Amino acid sequence: MEEKLIDKLLLIGKSVPSLLIGTLISIELALAFLGFGFVVGIPLAVGEVYGNKFVKYLTVLPIVEFFRSIPALVLLFLFYFGASSLNLNFSPFIAALLAMGFRSAAYQSQIFRGAIQSIDVGQMLAARSIGMSKFKAIRYIILPQALRISIPSWSNEYASVLKDTSLVYALGITELMRQGRYIVARTFGNAILVYVVCALIYFLVVHFGVKLLDFLEERYKIPGYEIKKVTTRA
Amino acid sequence: MAQTILKVEDIHKSYGKTEVIKGVSFKVKKGETKVIIGPSGTGKSTLLRCINQLDYLDKGRVWLEDVEISKSPIDINQIRASIGFVFQSFNLFTHLTALDNVRIGPMRVKGMKEKEATKIALEELKRVGLEDKKDHYPAQLSGGQQQRVSIARALSMNPKLILFDEPTSALDPELIGEVLEVMSKLAKEGVTMIVVSHEMGFAHSVANDIIFMDGGIILEEGPPQQIFKNPKHERTAKFLSKITQLEGEKAK
Amino acid sequence: MNFLEFAWNILPTLLKGSLVSIELTILAISIGLLLGIPLSLGRVYGNRFIYACTTIYVEAFRGTPVLTQLFILYFGLPSIGIMFPPFTAAVIGLGLNSAAYQAEYFRGAIQAIKGGQMLAARSIGMNTIKSIRYIVLPQMFRLVIPSWSNELILLLKASSIAYMIQVSELVSVGRQIASQNFRTFEVFLVIAFIYFVIVEILNRILHSVERKIKIPGL
């Protein structure tokens, strides 16, 4: 009996490095998807709020609807197989980045749109009244406020994206779940232990990430100004 | 003869089917303080917003000094940088300190360097009596203080004239005084101002010229003594008596 | 064969796959409903122990990926002797997961009603159970419809993850077709289209249901 316990512990010990690598890859992926989503999401939101009807109904909304109605897994396969059918050489990582990045952009654009629309109309009026162009007003007055307001909802998005990185397993990328799979294959059993540990790792990374975002929210709070929490998708 | 800073000719403006401004014309000279009074909803605020085009004119022309600013193509941002606007609801930028609120115009619109813009901002804050609040955020200031900062923000752009849209109407009574004090001071210093207001005491003692608007047109125009003592129109007299009745009761 | 012809050819097979996805979704959301309501009541009205247990459940399922949960059920449990067929594992996994999210939606709705309504119910002599049954729950159901509709759609999309544990739903059927003719990209274009259409239709239906059930003024 003792032998088995020691074996098990050694097993866990040997697996830790692979799990750590997998975790790091998952975090990297999440940050990449979120970053891409942020950079694309802001113009989408600004276009939806301030753009003309063409921009809003023929460009922004179709993109947002497309990436929100279709399951993440299907998006991953679309981009991955789409690339080879168009004779482009995409690594699985690039396919995943585009699929999950645009998806996050669609969701983030709605967060930012809500935040922008919740800002009092007088802010834009005041900015224009001192001679700022629409662009300057958006850049110096609207966005700084909108981004602060978005932090709680953005927390949800972080959690979602991190959990969704598990899906890139389907493209063969060696993130945490795949590392788990390899460990199960290498060690012939204890699948439940390995996968529960993976679940635990996801839980911790999500939890501490959200705590970090809460800290940032406090730090960058506008003094005296209460920001209401708005929760969006699960 | 003092220079004409603003000329407004035959302004018309409708919201949907309702015509709110039905043909308004007047001139404002340099250093003049013009106060527009009249019943609520008669287009006074709309008129101000039409001057710097925060609202669009349906018909009519506006000249700033010798430049016709109602004719396109013009750089509306440059025009707005030369016309100051003080809002009824202050509209200070909530994410910026008082100092940042006042210097963002010179820095980001006029392209000044931070050092120079800060110097100007501090001067204007001093002018409205709030230099010690420079690092406070709007949410940490009282209504009267916020409005004074917004006046400093308008001043820091060195505008040719300043438009005041009911600057004290959203303030608690005990805070109105500090704002009117600043405005009187500016009038004495020769700042060209158009003020839409219900504050008759201010109109009486500080205005060079008063315009009475009712039903979308100018019913009467003249110096305070004439308007208050010898109004030409019955409606002017009626309006004034109602207001002074209220003021008298307030004073009691 | 051009794309449209091809799409038309594979559509019947794909639609059969989508029926499995829909079946999976309906079963899972029902489990989520049946389990989610007691969970939410536990979170709002329960004593410290019940609160702790339900919170652990909710946090565990919401804080970890669906894929991991399905792997534990399908690949993990066999190592301690419990073996589920793919579809069953998927239904259980998605159902338990949905219960956690639904519990939070119901909890939010109850807390939006709580205060004065409960007091009023008590004041006319109702005990806690009656108050919950006749006053809180009816209002809660109406308040929760927007989030619940959202959950239904999220679950439909999540059903695609069941592909990873060998359930023959839409994505799985698609890959089977693709393995025979290698036109994978086009197959997935059709799959994407099917999901898009189903989601749009669901959205419309749910919105009109929402409007009809709405309590005026609430």
CATH architecture term of chain C: Orthogonal Bundle
List low-pLDDT spans of chain B: none
Strand order of the largest sheet of chain B: 6-7-8-3-9-10
CATH class of the largest domain in chain B: Alpha Beta
For the record, the CATH class of chain C is Mainly Alpha
What structural category do the secondary elements of chain B indicate?
Answer: alpha/beta
Main beta-sheet strand count, sense and barrel state of chain B: 6 strands, mixed
Order of helices and strands of chain C: HHHHHHH
Oligomer: heterotrimer
Radius of gyration of chain B: 18 Å
Helices and strands of chain B, in N-to-C order?
A: EEEHEEHEHHHEHEHEEHH
Biggest protein-protein contact in the assembly? A-C, 42 and 44 residues
Mean pLDDT score of chain C, rounded?
A: 90
Please give a handful of descriptors for the protein shown.
heterotrimer, B: alpha/beta, Rossmann fold, six-stranded mixed beta sheet, 9 helices, C: 218 residues, mainly alpha, MetI-like fold, 7 helices
Structural features, described:
The complex is a heterotrimer of chains A (234), B (252) and C (218). Chain A is mostly helical. Chain A is built from 8 helices and no strands. Chain A has one domain: MetI-like fold. Helix content of chain A is 80%, strand content 0%. The radius of gyration of chain A is 22 Å and the shape is flat. Chain B has 252 residues and is an alpha/beta fold. Chain B has 2 domains: 1-26 and 49-66, no CATH class; 78-212, Rossmann fold. Chain B is built from 9 helices and 10 strands. Chain B has helices at 44-51, 76-82, 98-109, 114-127, 143-155, 173-188, 200-206, 224-229, 234-251; strands at residues 4-15, 18-29, 33-37, 59-64, 67-68, 83-86, 161-165, 193-196, 209-214, 217-222. In chain B, the strands form 2 sheets. In chain B, strands 6-7-8-3-9-10 form a 6-stranded mixed sheet, with helices on both faces. Chain B has a 4-stranded antiparallel sheet with strand order 2-1-4-5, with helices on one face. The mean pLDDT of chain B is 91. Chain C has one domain (3-213): Orthogonal Bundle (MetI-like fold), CATH 1.10.3720. Chain C is built from 7 helices and no strands. Chain C is flat. In chain C, helix 1 packs across helix 7 (184-213) and helix 4 (86-123) packs antiparallel against helix 5 (128-158). Chain C is mostly helical and 218 residues long. The mean pLDDT of chain C is 90. The interface between A and C is large, with 42 and 44 residues.
